[in-house]
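Sample entry (420 residues):
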Amino acid sequence: MFKKKKIIYISLALIPFLGIILYFNLKLYSAPDFNHQGEVTNDVVKQLNFLENELKNENLGIRMQQIYPEGFVFIHALYGLTWTEVAMSANPGSPLYDHSLSEAIYAYNEINSEYGRSVFEKGLNPEYGMYYRGWENFLLSQILKVQPDRDSNLTISYKQNCLEISNAIQACRSPYPESYPNAAWPADAFVAVASLKQYDELFGANYETIIHIWVDRVKKKLDAGNPMIPHSVDAITGDQREIARGSSSSLILIFLADIDPVFASNQFKLFSSSFQLTRFGLPAIMEYPNGHSGKGDIDSGPVIMDIGLAATIVSVGTFKKFGEKRAAEKLSASVESFGFPICCKNSKRYLFGSLPIADAFIAWTRMQEVNKKVVIDKGTYCLNSGSFFWFHFYCTITIILILVLFLRREIVEKFKYLTK
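Predicted structure, serialized as tokens:
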């Protein structure tokens, strides 16, 4: 009788643990299907509903600014850009389209506010620096792209920003104008140059030559060991200060795909071979390339077992952009499994709503579309081509070992009884 009770108590104690393992396995199959855009959009809108409430009623922008140096601008930029992607997939004139455009403009106005500019240095070239001007102007370009009748004031602001960005690029010794005094990050410049590329699509070729010259300058400042775009550079010379990292490389590639598809293809192949890995049968992206290691920081988020949280999330959009939809789905499934999503009515949040910048990135990257001009070799990210078999296998073995561990005495005694 005592042994039976002991087995019951052990079984009850194991239920929560077994439930968690089962949860991780089942959630791998609950991410939105990238072959059905409507399903993806509906899921992303739920995330945006959560972010909208947080921004407008819970001071999310100010809270993010207290955590990240550019938190206020960044959360609004990602929020607004995601709404423009939703607008592109909606029917013009529909309630969803109108709401999407309205929220994108709201996000731009917040970025363009006095508070939005307050943490940036006005005296930089371009004014307020490359980070601020780049994200502000790229959001503007996307708003104008989806507006049926382009707002004249927004158009004037956009064209003036493009001129400032262009002049700054031409005046700077480095390909990467400053984001802060004496500080430059290549990713910021790629966002800004992508906004120039959009100008040529919206209003006719004007910056094509400048962009071509700029890309050539970028190619001369690659890492000598692994010819990728560095994470950070000297603000004066543009020489590398930090090697390429997963968080910035994945983001850069999303914009580079539109700026220069052929160069982007080459960088994507290097990224795939340098940053991919699997852990326990699941795909992920490293923050530091093969042969290097480091700790997490404000750019990368947590780095656990070499896996970069930000890099893995953003890479969902990167692989979608380059036509590697299967790889993107597998990465997205990993995010869904370990992101602890919570759905409530028409709202969805990850990590229990504790890190909304992750929600914003998940939403924006999932809405990325394939750039058909990108030259790619299908199946580059071969580690994602299979099933989740090995993850299920490892989980099954873990469960068996735990059961054996807890019930080993009963098993041994039973074995002895049977062999008498």
